[in-house]
Amino acid sequence: xSGRSVLxxxxxxxSILRDLTITAIALxxxxxxxxxxxxxxxxxxxxxxxDIVIDPGLWPSLMKLALDTAHQIIDIKSSRLRAPxxxxxxxxxxxxxxxxxxxxxxxxxxxxKYVLSNSGVREDLMDFITCSKELSSIGLVRVRGKDxxxxxxxxxxxxxxxxxxxxxxxxxxxxxxxxxxxxxxxxSNAWLGLLSIGFSVAYAGMFGANVALVTLTEESLSRVDVxxxxxxxxxxxxxxxxxxxxxxxxxxxxxxxxxxxxxxASYLGSLGISAExxxxxxxxxxxxxxxxxxxxFLKVGGLPKLKVHTMGVTRVFTVLNRAELSLExxxxxxxxxxxxxxxxxxxxxxxxxxxxxxxxxxxxxxLNALTYLYEAINRAKSPYEATYILLRTIAxxxxxxxxxxGRAVRISxxxxxxxxxxxxxMS
Length: 427
Hints:
Layout: E1 5-10, H1 16-32, E2 40-44, E3 49-54, H2 59-80, H3 88-98, H4 108-117, H5 119-125, H6 128-134, E4 138-143, E5 146-151, E6 158-159, E7 171-173, E8 180-187, H7 189-202, E9 203-207, E10 210-216, H8 224-236, H9 244-258, H10 261-270, H11 279-284, H12 291-300, E11 306-313, E12 317-325, H13 328-341, H14 345-358, H15 364-377, H16 383-402, H17 413-426
């Protein structure tokens, strides 16, 4: 205990950069238990920073574990999630400088994967003294007549990748002058590595011309044992977060099957991905022996929220939408269904087939029924009215399918009764 030191990570102003930093720190905090019980992650609201209390000798092991785990996650995502190709400037001035294997066909997932394996980035991020200096430093400096937001002090050789700086205006108006002031962001190795860890965890897919990131909130840092498994489960399943209500319902119905080590291994196996070599990733998940832990936690309350960021991909990345998700009511509902039915069939096979039709917002009647269901879960609608509208919608879908239009879904009488009872228990 006497050999511990404090490493301070300064948080960027409210932005995707801040949320990715918090997500990376949450991953590090979750993995810390496998390195030492004496490692602590402490938010410091007075200085708007996060303190990691650790024996400096353990820092290299912890950061190697974090880098390798993030690499495993992004490796899975790059094999099955769509991602935009690298912007030319990002290709030329950031990722190509890190690896000659980066090509003009490489995506942002490919690019950040190369960051995580770059020897210079890994060396700096695994060095306690370097990180103590670099990660505590964010400031405005003047370089060649331009104002630069500097993340770190050493080198600052990398411009901020465009996908990370959607809220950072490259030019800003100068007070009382009819011209603009150029502002750019630059990163040291340590900051680029930390943000790459956050990006690997947060990236949730590309849907049409939009990219989705799901990040953790600061409150999650005190509950990484629950927050990180939920985050990983959510970002691996590749579903469109727009509209948001079907998305919340869908991920809440899937999370119970994915957030445990055995559950995630089974899911990856269904995709043809062996979990045997993914031991680091499995350390993030809730042990199957503690599956009741989350159910008890939901009864007490205080489940950390998630943030969903949707960005448009054109010549530049632009923020289209931000939403903060509270999964506590919908996850409670999901577990109630399992308890009432005595199995997961109603939740994971029957109800989810209806909810899945609402993803992407292409079925207005389904979206309406799911909105009623969501509001009933949150005690804003009658359980009976919500179930009636759900049943009527299923009947309409079946009639359309019989006429050769659309796809029929079926929910058993037992499942419908369980939905009513679960909604009654929520109210």
